[in-house]
């Protein structure tokens, strides 16, 4: 059962310059994805951001698409949306862990990413979390991306993330695992 516990939410940041967000969604569970997209779009609109949307086959492809867009396109931030429901095999653990890790590594490189990939036990949990009038996790992911964009602009003087980095994602993954080599 989904919790109704209230959580503190930061007010949306305001921006002096336009903000472009890319929503990357895996619509495997179409109704869940549509609710999350609606929530993300509404939050982006409330902050004055413009939004583009692309679909990818599954949650594992979301980090790859965001990484490609971070290098090849002109977005200020990214919203990752999808849903992984526990099944009978360990595939659930692989998809949850690897999609989250991919997004984290991209974020550590400087991309502003809101992670809205739901990891749930059943569809009832997903429905409550995806509902824009419920827990609105799509809106929460968009808000997270917007807050990170605001920080990036504050600390980077408006420079676009995604340029040359001290570490590439492969080297960073090795360092986080302790190998120090890539």
Automatic annotation (TrEMBL):
In which family does this protein belong, per the annotation?
Answer: Belongs to the DMRL synthase family.
Hey, what's the signal peptide range on this chain? none
Question: What does the record give under GO molecular function?
Answer: 6,7-dimethyl-8-ribityllumazine synthase activity
Q: What class of enzyme is it?
A: transferase
Question: Sorted alphabetically, which Pfam families does this protein's record hold?
Answer: DMRL_synthase
Origin organism is Paracoccus zhejiangensis
Keywords attached to this entry: Riboflavin biosynthesis, Transferase
Task: Decide whether keyword Transferase is in the record.
Answer: yes
The name on file for this protein is 6,7-dimethyl-8-ribityllumazine synthase
* Residue numbers binding (2S)-2-hydroxy-3-oxobutyl phosphate: 88-89, 129
InterPro entries (UniProt xref): LS (IPR034964), LS/RS (IPR002180), LS/RS_sf (IPR036467)
């Amino acid at each position: 059962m989904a919790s109704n516990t209230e959580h503190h939410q930061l007010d949306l940041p305001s921006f002096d310059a336009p903000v472009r967000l890319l929503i990357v969604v895996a619509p495997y569970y179409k109704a869940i994805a549509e609710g999350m997209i609606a929530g993300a779009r509404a939050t982006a609109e409330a902050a004055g951001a413009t939004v583009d949307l692309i679909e990818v086959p599954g949650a594992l492809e979301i980090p790859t698409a965001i990484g490609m867009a971070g290098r090849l396109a002109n977005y200020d931030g990214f919203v990752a949306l999808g849903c992984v429901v526990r099944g009978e095999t360990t595939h659930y653990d692989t998809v949850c862990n690897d999609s989250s890790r991919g997004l984290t590594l991209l974020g550590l490189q400087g991309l502003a990413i809101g992670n809205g990939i739901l990891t749930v036990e059943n569809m009832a949990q997903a429905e409550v979390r995806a509902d824009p009038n419920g827990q609105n996790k799509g809106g929460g992911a968009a808000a997270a991306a917007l807050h990170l964009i605001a920080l990036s602009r504050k600390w980077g003087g408006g420079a676009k993330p995604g340029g040359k980095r001290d570490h590439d994602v492969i080297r960073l993954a090795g360092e986080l695992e302790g190998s120090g080599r890539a």
